[in-house]
Amino acid sequence: MQTQTLAIGGMTCAACSARVEKAILKVTGVAAASVNIATEKATVTYDPSVVRISAVKDAVVKAGYTALDPRESSIDKDRQRKEKEIKTLWTKFAVAASFGFALLYIAMVPMIKAFTLPFPKELSPMHFPLAYALAELLLVIPVIIAGNKFYSTGFKNLLHASPNMDSLIAIGTSAALIYSCHNTIKIAQGDSGAVESLYFETAGVIIALILLGKSLEAVSKGRTSEAIRGLIALAPKTATLITEDGAGGYTEKEIPIDEVVPGDVIMVRPGAKIPVDGVVIDGQSAVDEAMLSGESMPVDKKAGDMVYGATINVNGALRFRAEKVGGETALAQIIRLVEDAQGSKAPIAQLADVVSGYFVPIVCAIALLSGAAWFVAASSGAVNPPTGKSALEFSLTIFISVLVIACPCALGLATPTAIMVATGKGAENGILIKGGGALETTHKINTIVFDKTGTLTEGKPEVTDIIAAQGCFAAPASAENLLLQTAASAEKGSEHPLGQAIVNGANSRGLKLLNAENFQALPGRGIEASVNGQMVLAGNRKLLEERSIPLAALEADSDRLAGEGKTPMYIALDGKAAGIVAVADVLKSGSKEAVEILQQMNIETVMITGDNKKTAAAIAKQIGIGRVLAEVLPQDKSAEVKSLQNEGRTTAMVGDGINDAPALVQADVGIAIGSGTDVAMESADIVLMHSDIMDVPAAINLSKQTIRIIKQNLFWAFGYNTLGIPIAAGALYLFGGPLLNPMFAAAAMSMSSVSVLINALRLKRFKPAKRNATRR
Question: Would you place residue 346 in the very low, low, confident or very high pLDDT band (cuts 50, 70, 90)?
Fold first, then answer.
């Protein structure tokens, strides 16, 4: 199976997206299709051995829409196309508003008796009714031309038996125009009374108001994709290519970034952005990788180190070999992840999709039935039409109002716009959410399982305590350094993480390592070596007990350290206990605070680890985690997650390693640490690019706020249509209330879509909780 994204043109409401989706799914060989009205894109999964993408595009075109080639739907081209669309809409609105206002002025001023406004006598409806009618007709023509798309698209979809919002507008305004033209002919034939039955201004103002709504909607939809544009703006446009000149030197040439290929040697000067991903081959510098990692401190780079596109070279010149270019760079993958998420659908959107598919035909039926019912009632005398209106005019007003007030757009935009803003905002804060489903499920989480090593802890053991036995060293003041120096010198040849931690601890204190001889690793116990003529043992209790070395003087310290979650390493010199060097995988900054926030959110926190129960319990106590799953083998982590799910819990798993991947997949929501393995990140639903545990509660809060916004949008969209359509159908008039003017119906419809978009844009104000301490 292959997945392809197509840019779809011509969609105006949820009914359109539903029609396109159905048309694509009917194509043989298409396994799945998802059409997003907010992004105006279709994601299609198909079997390339059965069907070509061109057949899918043909199906879209036959449905009455356009499908752009993937190569023509790049983000930059999409942006340019949308900017052009917005400019065109505003131009059309300006034309419609100008002529529509003049039309409304001519139609309304003669009816206003309270005060006098300037009005040409030559257009007096009382004295020159034909001139008055023709003036209105001439003024409405530019408005109709400005709104021609409503008619071309609306009637085309009507002929395809799939009416959409444009169809409603086209039918409603056409009815007003045809009726007005009929009365203009009657005026020309001498019936001056027909001048009171002109509805040109109704059609003109409706189109102007809807064009205003469409313009505001297009601007708002553009703002929902600002996060993507912000990510794209991070990448430089050019790169400095280094080529050999044949005389032992090299030349520099600036080329577009699109022309860089793997293997090219690129020069980056201080202050410049790194164009693509690659490996440093010459030079030293510090690189600001904040856009990827969230770290404020620049990272030192030298030959052999990886550098990433869009990061900033701070102070030194670097030459590097390009390895990943174009869509393979880290930045491009982040952009693709955000795009995929924005184009996905959340399960909560399914109801709106189902309703939207039947909405327009039902509205058409309601408009016809209500118009016909009022016509019959008014004609029979059962109901008195408003003063000055005939039964036909009365029913026509009802018919137009129902068609114009109905708004499938609000339903269609309620969910995807909120998801677009939320995933974009998450990306801005280093939280990559892979789809609408993950975003929705996250707000239901009530249990979070944390892997210990590399997730709650740094994953890099460090020396935490040094305890020298009394009487072992001549100078007590320097006993700790002497003990660490001796132990590190012996461990220098060790590959064990604990041994490396001791060596790193000595290096960080500036201690010079001594020569070690006769090094021997003792699996499961420790090491032995000769340092400066002394036999050194470094290892666990079992090693020293095997050599019959008394440990009584160090037992209390050893038990205390183990109780604190640290690993005590015994050091012996020439058969005598010399002290303890304790090593621990220290907690990540923010782990404790993140757990506290989650518990305040009534989310249970669980720690899973392969450590022994005593050490695991000690670490959990430091963090504040109450439930510990200790001594769990890597292959059993997913089973433990499943066990929690069997208890009825909605579970998230947070991990970073390859061995966490099965558990990440098993969990309802898998959350991977960005500094972890590629396998973990591919298995997860959410990736924390800043590798900050504080982003776990931030992701949950973002999900909760998004779902709240979506529910508000759906409530408004359903509520608006549930109340608006009966009012337009004359429900209030039936009980002695006012009759809704079609112009007010058009204004309400336009603003309903805009209000849904504005509500979704409130998510742009989302800010993740900051630590009490300074962020790393």
Answer: low
